[in-house]
Amino acid sequence: MAFLYQMLGSKIWPPRDTKPDLTGRTLLITGAECLPNSGLGYESVIKFVRASAKRIIIGVRSIEKGEEAKRAILAQIPQSNVTIDVYHLDMLDYTTIEAFASRVNQEVERLDYVVLNAGISPHAYKKSAYGFESGIQVNLVSTTLLSLLLLPKLLASKTDTFTPVLELVGSGTHQRMPQLLPETDNTEKDISEVYNSETSFRTFGFIQQYSLTKLFLMYVQWQLVKLVDDKVSGSPRVYVIVVGPGPTQSGLGRDFQEQSSLGVRVAVHTMNLLTKTAEQGARTYLSGLMLGEKGHGQFWQWDSVNRC
Ligand SMILES: NC(=O)c1ccc[n+]([C@@H]2O[C@H](COP(=O)([O-])OP(=O)(O)OC[C@H]3O[C@@H](n4cnc5c(N)ncnc54)[C@H](OP(=O)(O)O)[C@@H]3O)[C@@H](O)[C@H]2O)c1
User: Fold this and answer.
1) Which of residues 182 and 209 earns the better pLDDT score?
2) CB of 10 closer than 6 A to ligand 1?
3) Which pick of 116, 195, 198, 296 has the fewest CB atoms within 10 Å?
4) Which pTM was predicted?
């Protein structure tokens, strides 16, 4: 019931469209190629371009789909002077994550904003090549790895008047997690093994397993915040934040849809129509990023941004 209320509420009263000024800024976003059902990443890039960003790096699994998204975006805003670079990145493959970060570190002069948007909500249990449940792999482990690899560039981009932002994408569903698995009270057990097991996936179900990845992402944020705080002044050298876009139309449920009966697909499609659009969801990403701009406090939306 609470979920339905949240879903309809954010459709009727979507997040504010803040339209900030990103002149001269370089942004990086992962997972922005979702066409034709554009997701939050794709809609965010449109907003970055409209806000006059100087350069945008898009990390995608399929260069072809990334280039297609780039063409579609530039066709919508032909007057823009932005440079969009499409780099290969697969969050299920550490080799590409390291190659992606190293390319960014070498080829990008400064990095003002990073949005680690790529995420999945798998319907069935699947293990990654590294032994993690695939949702935990993409949403949590690989996102943490990429955060750590990009932090040096973000730290080096801080100036007296500007603090770079590392934005992780969470989900309000993490607040609705029931208690964690009782096995984790047993100190003999390896927690990672417990939560990456098929038993955990079956116990929670795919929706709660997704929520679990986002709950653990909050713990990662706490640690990253500690890592980047200036020990002398106590103020952050990089803002590490988590934004929760809330229920939004996107391709996130495609795995579930593909594996469901026609009736369920129709029900999900109908429910999708009751949620806000990806463009409206992407507004939360922009609000979160504005933490970096001094004097732009009016762009904050505390209900959608969590900063520890
Ligand atoms: N939609 C919602 O209601 C909602 C609510 C709260 C939070 N979120 C979060 O918002 C973020 C964006 O999701 P969305 O709703 O926009 O879903 P989406 O349309 O499915 O977009 C997800 C993006 O992540 C990319 N991705 C998936 N696996 C990847 C991998 N292994 N390597 C690189 N990229 C990968 C996808 O690329 P491909 O096209 O290659 O698969 C796609 O571009 C996710 O972190 C999600 O958890 C969504």
Assistant:
1) 209
2) no
3) 198
4) 0.93
